[in-house]
Task: structure prediction
Amino acid sequence: MALVAVAGVVAMAGCGSSKPAYCTDRTNLENSIKGLSSPDLSNGLSSLEAQLKKIESNATTLVNSAKSDFPNETSAITSSVDSLKSAVTQLASDHSAANIAAVAADAASVVKSVKSFTDATNSKCS
Result:
């Protein structure tokens, strides 16, 4: 009887409530994209470029930890961050209204792709 009780405790210990690593990575990326909503452009593009580096780093970490479980969502994150990086690079050399609009659109795309990932992982990360 005692052996059955011990087996039950061991089995329950294996059912812990630990969340996948990508849950923390998701939170870190969500926090880094919040800076896109109100970038401090008083020093030119340097703050936007610094924010982009944080986003790139957090996105890479998230994609690496979750791509096997969520290949479509992580691919969308990678693609949207790459597009934003390209738009910010273009804006650095040409401050035209079209390039500003491209950065805004690509930033919105990053937010959308991260939200899609968040929606897909809510059941695992809640």
Notes: Residues 1-16 have pLDDT under 50 and may be disordered. Residues 20-121 form a domain with the Four Helix Bundle (Hemerythrin (Met), subunit A) fold (CATH 1.20.120).
